[in-house]
Specification:
Blueprint (H helix, E strand, L loop, with lengths): L14 H14 L5 E5 L5 H16 L5 E4 L31 E5 L12 H5 L2 E6 L10 E4 L6 H11 L6 H14 L10 H11 L5 H8 L5 H12 L2 E3 L8 E6 L1 H6 L11 H5 L6 E9 L2 E8 L5 H7 L3 E2 L3 E7 L2 H14 L4
Parallel strand pairs: 1-2, 1-3, 3-4, 4-5, 7-8
Antiparallel strand pairs: 6-7, 8-9, 9-11, 10-11
Helix pairs in contact: 2-4, 2-5, 4-5, 5-6, 5-7, 11-12
Bound molecules: adenosine monophosphate and manganese (II) ion (2 copies).
One manganese (II) ion binds next to helix 2.
Length: 345
């Protein structure tokens, strides 16, 4: 299940690529069928950048417009209040032959699941992304590995299309930006990020209310589930060439016992990555029998993007993921091996 190792990419987007993207949207969007796609198990940046851009296209007068993502049509509870949700359709209902496909926050075609065929079916594809591991698929590639979120790229393209921000577009982009910067705490929180946040907040949105909804609210059962899963965490101070590792796993049975949906586990990496004694944190989450979504985080000593790429996934230097197979212990054998091979400091 490994895929091509990412090629080296330019860190910012060339003027010629912006121009092609604008030309492509102007050529195909107004009269054509436009399909927007984000990655499987969508997070705040995937949904927020996609829906914010979709609302922008609607403002441009685009009428045949759908947004979708592969896999079960389930929107994580924190995102069920996002503007533009009426544009979302399940994978099965997505235009089979769109004129234009726009792809959001997708590092590799494998993250498009069954929707990958729409890339070839479309007359043109534009990819908006910010993963250093982006594999460079699609006709026009707007990939900025220095951007804190795909929403940063989306806002710039909307600006170049002369779409002004309104409250609804801004709320989508704000959720995306706040999600991928960990509420403006991570390293990628540059002046550019705060300037963008200022433009978004100036539309009148309520940051406190949005944060409560997307970060500070979870069912009681999810808290009890977290207690079980955190309770079995293991500390390995000698892993990652002595930089240390903490890891845990969650099974489908854990979810069933506490009557929780899989997306609630997306937040579980946060308490785990706070462990002071180690550099690396890992959460191994069962998504199907013997199949695990693995979240990796580093504080800087290990390039977890390289670890994830070596194991068939992708991501960023300090936050990455891949799909593992077997038992959690088997998955961790390969993780330990790759961690030791990708120490950078
Ligand atoms: P997560 O741990 O799911 O929050 O993901 C952390 C980062 O790694 C995000 O930028 C994801 O887009 C990326 N990522 C996670 N899983 C994969 C995968 N299977 N393939 C490529 N990138 C991934
Ligand atoms: Mn994402
Ligand atoms: Mn992202």
């Amino acid at each position: 299940m490994t895929e091509a190792v990412a090629t080296t990419i330019d860190v910012t987007i060339a003027e010629a690529d912006w121009a092609s993207a604008v030309r492509t949207v102007r050529e195909f969007a107004p009269a054509g069928r436009v399909l927007l796609i984000c990655h499987v198990s969508p997070d705040g940046d995937a949904l927020g950048s996609m829906l914010g851009f979709a609302l922008g296209l609607r403002r441009l007068g685009v009428r045949d417009l759908q947004a979708t993502f592969p896999g079960p049509f389930e929107i994580p509870e924190p995102f069920t209040g996002l503007p533009g949700l009426d544009l979302l359709v399940p994978e099965a209902d997505a235009y089979p032959n769109p004129d234009l496909v726009l792809v959001f926050d997708v590092a590799a075609e494998s993250r498009l699941g069954g929707l990958v065929d729409r890339l070839a079916a479309a007359r043109a594809t534009v990819v908006l992304d910010h993963h250093a591991s982006n594999t460079r698929f699609g006709d026009v590639q707007l990939v900025d590995a220095t951007a804190a979120a795909t929403a940063v790229v989306a806002e710039q393209l909307l600006d170049r299309l002369d779409v002004p921000l309104d409250l609804h577009i801004a709320e989508c982009l704000y959720v995306a930006l706040a999600t991928d910067t960990g509420s403006f705490r991570f390293d990628m929180t540059t002046p550019r990020v705060h300037e963008m946040a200022a433009r978004l907040i100036a539309t009148g949105l309520r940051p406190g209310e949005i944060s409560r909804r997307i970060f500070d609210s979870r069912p009681f059962g999810a808290m009890k589930l977290f207690a079980d899963v955190l309770g079995r965490a293991e500390l390995e101070p000698t892993a990652a060439a002595g930089h240390g590792l903490v890891w845990t796993y969650a099974t489908l049975d854990d979810l069933a016992r506490h009557e929780q949906r899989p997306y609630v586990l997306d937040a579980l990496i946060d308490p785990v990555r706070c462990v002071a004694e180690v550099d690396v944190s890992v959460v191994v989450k069962e998504v199907a029998a013997g199949e695990w979504a693995v979240s990796l985080r580093s504080k800087g000593a290990v390039d977890v993007s390289a670890v994830a790429i070596a194991l068939g996934g992708g991501g960023h230097r300090l936050a990455a993921g891949f799909t593992g197979y077997g038992a959690p212990g088997d998955v961790m054998v390969s993780v330990r091996e790759q961690l030791a091979a990708h120490v950078v400091a």
